[in-house]
Major facilitator superfamily (MFS) profile domain-containing protein
Amino acid sequence: MLSAQTVRGLYMPKRSSSVIFLVFMVILVNSLFPSLNLTDDLDLRNGLMILPTFADYMNFNTASQAASSAIIWIGGAVIAPFGGLLLDRFGRKNGLLGAAMICFLGVSLQGSAQNAAMFMVARFILGMGVGLSSIACPTYASEVAPTKYRAWMLGFYYDIWYFGGLVAAVITYGTARIPNTWAWRLPSLLQAIPSLLAILLLPLVPESPRWLVAQGRGDEALNVLAMVMANGDASDPATLAAYDQIMGAIAYEQQNPAAQSWFAAFKTPPNRKRTGLAMSVAVIGNLSGSAIASYWLGTMLSQAGITDALSQLQINIVLNLWCLICAGAGTFFADKIGRKPLAMGSLTFSLAFLYLVGAFTKLYSSSTNKSAVYGTVACIFLFQGGYSFGWTTLLVMYPPEVLNFSLRANGMGIYTFVSNSAAVFATFVMPFALNNIGWKTYMINASWDVVEVAFVAYYWVETRKRSLEEIDEIFEGPMHVHNATTMEGYELEGTRTSEVDHGKQHKL
């Protein structure tokens, strides 16, 4: 049997707390290129579109502005069909490495763009890197993190969206007074930092133990679990129980048709259920109204009566700080509240204020009444806060939880493709809707959110405080989880037949 030191290598620490911290840092850094790189790309783009120097240099109209937002999602959609295959073939860490390198290339081209065409190509490449990271990082995090830390690690993946947005907004505000193209080139080039940090941190963390088991490298997987759970002690009972669960689950999956393609993800009722749940997160996450504020905050504020560019940038900074606090609170309560109540409560709260944004915009968009303007801005803040509390947390927490190992990488690829496709739809439709029907856009979107709440209530399953293998029981029944014992802190509860109907109600 390989020793923990052999698996650890020269750079990995000995204590589990240190390994978990480094894994968290890798997740954090990787979240900074769908969140700093993508937030920097969305919130930075939000800020850039407000900057006169950028608008003058690129000479964008409404259609080209929409295209500049959509192209990053198109890049993510293009890489999505291949991301899962790459992760299953070469490993989760190599997927993260590839994402970091592609993002670095895209950022370099964006910061040095000489014209609108070069800027668009750069954003397409950046979108490919972001898309691959959106598949690789949640897959890696869900498979490495012990159950007690999984909600935190997955939740913070998109919580950092708002940290990235805050940084982007502050930087854009700080460079707004630069009278030349460095007002937007500097914020763009700073997006390279997360990619470089990811490349430096990856040698310090282990590979996914579940991927190692699937490759026939069980000894290495056991020692990775020992590193994460028991300070390298491979004889620890909790470590052995987790190892037993993983070995049994993957052996079961390998004896049954595996989802090695997108088509296989829809072949069986359990897989259709899993894939449908992941896809629902992608659709709801992008079409619940957040796209309006994420991409077109300047338009929203202008319609509310706030037209000054610096005032809009200041609001953008405060909004991102507010959303960061709300998203962090949602991650904290994810295991206390549960995934379904969190999703439903967040949607219900945010749709109420989206209705109010529409009403206030209709009544006071051309008004000089400052109280009405402030009321509209407050509703925007409350809508975004409600969305952030639940859905920012759930976007990459829920999909990898409901997907089993053989489906997880390809399932996250499907999730990423659907998410990017929905985002493309939102970024093309919303600006024209806001320009043509104004306040009615908010009303239509809020009414759609009511349908989403009903869907979650009827269709979703609860995953809180379950190991990934125990979540499999919801869909497959207790067919492959071995005798696991309850060990404090790791939630290895074994089968929960009192809470599971073995998937009968989950067939499509």
Observations:
- The CA atoms of residues 173 and 313 lie 6 Å apart.
- The longest helix spans residues 405-436.
- The two ends are 43 Å apart (CA to CA).
- The chain has two domains: 12-205, 263-477.
